[in-house]
Amino acid sequence: MPNQTSSSQGNRAQKNLPISNTTDPMPTKYRIVQAGWGSRTNFQASYGLGMDPDGLEEGEAILNVLLRREMEEWEERKERK
């Protein structure tokens, strides 16, 4: 039988989060990839990059730029609230 205590505690913890955290979460590389491409493989392919070490390194550099931009926009939205 699954431990329902930990599950219900997790739900309570999520409900106690500030609304801004749940409706406008902080950007992450994972969220950027999932929202725009669905998977890292699709992201890499959209830039003509393979899943080999060189392609992944270049993809990581692109993601770092995208993340910086998303973080700046997210911070601006937070300041306006």
Automatic annotation (TrEMBL):
Domain of life: Eukaryota
Protein name per UniProt: Uncharacterized protein
Region (Disordered): 1-27
Bias type Polar residues, positions: 1-25
